[in-house]
Every structure is written in C-alpha cells, then in structure tokens.
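Dear support,

We are seeing what looks like truncated structure output for some complexes. This example has two components. We would appreciate it if you could run it in full and send us the complete token output so we can diff it against ours.
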Amino acid sequence: DAGVTQTPRHEVAEKGQTIILKCEPVSGHNDLFWYRQTKIQGLELLSYFRSKSLMEDGGAFKDRFKAEMLNSSFSTLKIQPTEPKDSAVYLCASRAWGNTGQLYFGEGSKLTVL
Amino acid sequence: GDSVTQTEGQVTVSESKSLIINCTYSATSIAYPNLFWYVRYPGEGLQLLLKVITAGQKGSSRGFEATYNKETTSFHLQKASVQESDSAVYYCALSDMPNYNVLYFGSGTKLTVEP
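Here is the complete output from our reference environment:
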C-alpha cells in the first residue's frame, strides 16, 4: 500500500507569495493532520481533519494558513502571504479510524521563504 | 495546555553503549495522557516507535524501552546497547483529554551513534 504522499518535496518562495502544499493520505484513512516542523519548536499542529471535517486548527496559525480537505484522498495547505518565518518542513500524517496514536507520516515538504 | 519537553537537542553515543533520552510532559486534564515515542530515520518519514497508554506500564520496541511514570511526569527512552542504525531523530509525544485524537510533540532529539 502507498504511504502518505506529499508534494512538492521542496519549495522556494519569495516573501508575500502564495504557496500550496499537497497531501495524499493512506487509502482508507479517516484522520488527516498537518504539522509544521522546526528545530526549535519541534512539531506544531496546524490542522486536524476527521472524515473531511475540520476538527481542530492551531490557533496561532489561523490568519495566513488554511488547510482544506477536498475529498477523502487529497488535502492542501495554503500559506498566504508567506513570510520568512514560515520556512520549515510541513508534515502531513494520516490515521485509520479508531486507531489512536498510530500516525503515518509523509516525508514532508520543505519550504524556504526568502 | 498540554506540552512535552525534550531537554537534549542532540546526543552522541558510541556504539554498544547505553542511551537515555529524556522526556517530561505536562497535561492539563485530570486523566492521564497517552504517551508515545516516534522516530525519523534518515530519508524516511516519522514513524511510531512505541506507545504506552497506562501509567506505570512499560513499552518496548526494537530494543528501546520507555516507562510511563506519572509521579515524575516522565517518559524517558532507554536502550542498553545502541547500534549505528539507531542514528535518527526521536520525538516524544502525548495525547490527552478532551481530544485523544491529537498528538502533541516535543522538539526532538537527534541521536548520532558513532562506530
């Protein structure tokens, strides 16, 4: 079975641009998460979807970050407008229904904002 | 809110030596959180190493162990004899009421095992 697929793997953006990161979860998984990973903060939760419904979003990320789940097999994370402090690795993870804790992560999208 | 603290950002250990990576947690609910260790090997995605959902219990996987200690609010990761292949980044995490579905992670500890 395919794991979690994230694209692009690397993205370079100018300050003020809009970028869209994409995620395909493991087939059949009901939960989808977006995390931001930095060396200092570690993993910070951006969004959590269950069966395409937004269940939780990171309060600190609401203004310029928007995650959507267009269907059960595809999600996007839009950052608009980007700022240099957004430079990080963005991780997508999915989980089967009722399986608390066992998250399956993608390899991440590394974003650099100049 | 809930949080997880890993004090060491990087740890270097010689092969066959013992290892301990520290993790302490803070949970806001009166119920005990679920605790996890995740690992990211070079070139791979983050993956679950072990989990413990009951206070006082020990989890183990691939030679690693972690004991859920509610008195000291700790969940340290230990291994008696490390190998080069254990070199990776290790993340401690918890989930807690009211939403056990969401995991909160620490900042990670990069382990380098020297030959």
